[in-house]
Design brief:
The protein is of the alpha/beta class and about 450 residues long. The protein is about 35% helix and about 20% strand. The protein has 14 helices and 17 strands. It has helices spanning about 85-95, 100-115, 135-145, 175-190, 215-225, 240-250, 250-260, 275-285, 295-300, 305-310, 330-345, 355-365, 405, 435-450, and strands at about 5-15, 20-30, 35-40, 45-50, 55-60, 60, 120, 150-155, 200-205, 230-235, 265-270, 290, 315-320, 385-390, 415-420, 420-425, 430. Strands 1, 2, 3, 4, 5, 14, 15, 16 and 17 form a 9-stranded mixed β-sheet that branches. Strands 6-7-8-9 form a 4-stranded parallel β-sheet. Strands 10-11-12-13 form a 4-stranded parallel β-sheet. Helix 2 packs parallel to helix 3 (about 135-145), helix 2 (about 100-115) crosses helix 14 and helix 4 packs parallel to helix 5 (about 215-225). The structure holds zinc ion.
Length: about 450
Amino acid sequence: MAALLIRNADAVVTADDEDSILRNADILIRDGVIAEIGRNISADTEKTIDAHGCWIYPGLINTHHHLYQTFTRNLPMVQKMELFPWLVTLYEIWRGLDDEAIYYSSLTGMGELIKYGCTTVMDHHYVFPRERENNFIGMQFDAAKALGLRFCASRGSMSRGKKDGGLPPDDLVQDVDTILDDCVQLVKKYHDPSPLSFRQVVLAPCSPFSVTDALLKETAVLARKLKVRMHTHLCETKDEERYCLEKVNMRPLAYMESCGWLGEDVWYAHGIHFNDEELALLAKTKTGVAHCPVSNMKLSSGVCRVSEMLELGVPLGLAVDGSASNDCSNLLAEIRAAYLLHRLSRSEKAPTGYDFLKMATRGSAALLGRNDIGCLAVGKAADMFALDIELLELAGALLDPMNMLGTLGYSRPAEWVMAGGKIIAEKGVLAGIDEPEVRNKANVCVKDLLQKAGV
Ligand SMILES: [Zn+2]
């Protein structure tokens, strides 16, 4: 790939080890990697980008999503529900998912994420209707490739249906052998562990109330054998806590510990209802948490104890969660929502806007087990986004590039977004797909999906 020079950015917020912020800076990129960063870089490159009037940030990294839910957003009948009834209602629609719905919902959700600065997306896909063959994870990798972003898929799973005391309908759960066989195949086919990888796979049973003990235990053994990471929902609601106490007579984290689910290779989505001892255990074992503030507010789930987690050293990343409980896929907006939520609940102990930016970059990278992304420094991937700051609505607000995404937010798409040295979106337009065509196909898919469920 040819070299590229980004010239004269008003500010570069690096999120590097020194929390450096560079003024009037250049960034030289070779083969998708940052080769040099600083002032007045002279290099002979075929291409230059003038970044005067822009602030540049590391590409955001989303650590928990359900992209298929992009097609069940803004549905009137679930807007007043909490997680359990919300899930039970939506399973009835999700059972109609097919390859096309997965492909176009992935393009839709990923596309929105990219426009607002996201360059790496992790998805937790766990709905595999028994009645039809599918290539869901393959479809998701195709969508990510078309858009040019780094994608971390998960082979999610559900094995405890209604008849076994679980929450999902019986036709949406699979047996343990089918699930584990598919995990092995998908890791073999798609997982690339090398630095600067665009394709990774993790193993991700859905939640304590939709999987069996056997699946949790065997997944942990298999993931460690295959050297891939493990992810699930945990401590999202009080209903889940009651469910665990009732069914296995343990609190959720104790139950997961009994199944082998603690360690640096594990991260949980949400992590709201941990007690003090459990937070200490997470910190000690370096088990991570993906914080999903908008979804937690939307479903009235509670407030994650982010300040305490940061103090204790619990690995933390940021995520939008599935877009049926958000109902957007905008990680840039999530930074501001997180900042405000914790200002409200923790006052002077609340993290800063910059703390949340770091959570959405370096913190998220660490949850995915990566140190090649998440900050702007020599040798790191050229994943970044630029914001146009020469706007009337930002006049008088330009003192602090590090905290701005929390304090003010940024309510329009990034000026440009780059992954691996390639521009993947510019002024809100995706480079890899024909947006009007995809939008039309997506809307047809949604109609079809809702019709199948009689909605
Ligand atoms: Zn989720």
